[in-house]
Design goal:
With 104 residues, the chain is an alpha+beta fold. The chain has one domain: 3-Layer(aba) Sandwich (GIY-YIG endonuclease), CATH 3.40.1440.10. The chain has a six-stranded mixed sheet with strand order 1-2-5-3-4-6, with helices on both faces. The relative contact order is 0.28. The model has no long low-confidence stretch (mean pLDDT 95).
């Protein structure tokens, strides 16, 4: 299990996210991805932003049951403008099956 995940957005910018436990997500605002990792590779199944990353836990069960997600990675980002910009950049490159924009 990798402690960090580097993703590249449509713009070419690189974003480093840190592995997090579903039951111990930070209360800080930020971006998150749910990842399905297997022997055949990795796929981002959900990309989102939240004012408190603990809100991402509400989508976790769906991501696990419907898309076999098995990792959560987070990027702390207090600035709403930065979160939204990075979120749109990642969406453009990754095209995940689940999208969560600014969970309250």
């Amino acid at each position: 299990m990798k402690p960090f995940l580097d993703l590249v957005g449509r713009s070419g910018a690189s974003y480093r996210l840190k592995l997090a436990a579903p039951d111990r997500l930070p209360t800080t605002a930020g971006n998150f991805v749910f990842l399905r990792a297997s022997a055949s590779g990795e796929q981002v199944v959900c990309c989102g932003t939240a004012r408190s990353l603990t809100r991402a836990a509400g989508l976790w069960t769906t991501a696990v049951e419907q898309h076999r997600a098995n990792r959560i990675y987070v990027r702390l980002n207090v600035s709403r403008e930065a979160r939204e910009r990075e979120h749109e950049d990642l969406l453009g490159a990754l095209q995940p099956v689940m999208v969560a924009a600014e969970l309250d």
